[in-house]
Amino acid sequence: MRLRCGLEPKTLAALTVVLVVAAVLAAQHFWSGRPQPVSAPETVREEVAATGSTREPGPSPGAPPSAAAESPAKRVVIDVSGKVRSPGVHRLPAGSRVTDALRAAGGVKPGADLTGLNRARVLVDGEQVVVGGPAPPGQVAPGGGTPGQGVGGAGPAGAPVSLSTATVEQLDTLPGVGPVLAQHIIDYRTEHGGYRSVDELREVNGIGERRFADIEPRVRP
Q1: How far is CA 39 from CA 42, 43, 45, 48, in A?
Q2: Are 99 and 119 in contact (CB under 8 A)?
């Protein structure tokens, strides 16, 4: 080749070195561009080896937004006494009815008179349900009222209604008071922890001076 091309020995050697370097670079480029398997990170391999399977990512800490937005259900506290199997104070979901209170008290005893007991009535927080016996003043005596009780079982005839314990039905018997106003009276009682005097009725929404004058003689704190 040196004789044909007239190349000097030094030139031929330099050309040979260039060709060898080019061949090496080409081989390196080909080798680095080949497909290679990807191995899992070290921590993942250790976990797989320990458990034998991969785990799905767990949920983020904290309750779901919908659950966090929900507030606990309101409850009412009811005192069930009389001819029931488990008399006492029971906590029931708001909106429960008298029949739910009787069920929470273990049911009525055999022979208990339920005549006049409105088991479909919605319960009010703090009221007392008496089964088969006389009720305290201002309370209904369901299923066993005594002959001396007035309209709605508000107590002996002519006895004032207790603002601190009366139910919607009892307050509804007062002059000028309907179910809506009776509920306002109970709402005021709940917000202020009861009535300390009859004059507090003036603060109830819907009771003016004229209506207060009609109600005052028929109620007590």
Answers
A1: 9, 11, 9, 13
A2: yes
Tokens standing for residue 153: 């079982």
CA distance 83 to 201: 35
Q: Closest Cα to residue 160, out of 193, 99, 201, 119?
A: 201
Q: How confident is the model at residue 130 (pLDDT cuts 50, 70, 90)?
A: confident
More confident residue, 8 or 199: 199
pLDDT in tens, 47-74: 555 555 555 555 555 545 444 444 456 8
Is 153 within 8 Å of 135 (Cβ atoms)? yes
C-beta separation of 64 from 89 below 8 A: no
Helices (H), the chain: 2-5, 9-32, 42-51, 65-69, 98-104, 168-171, 179-192, 209-215
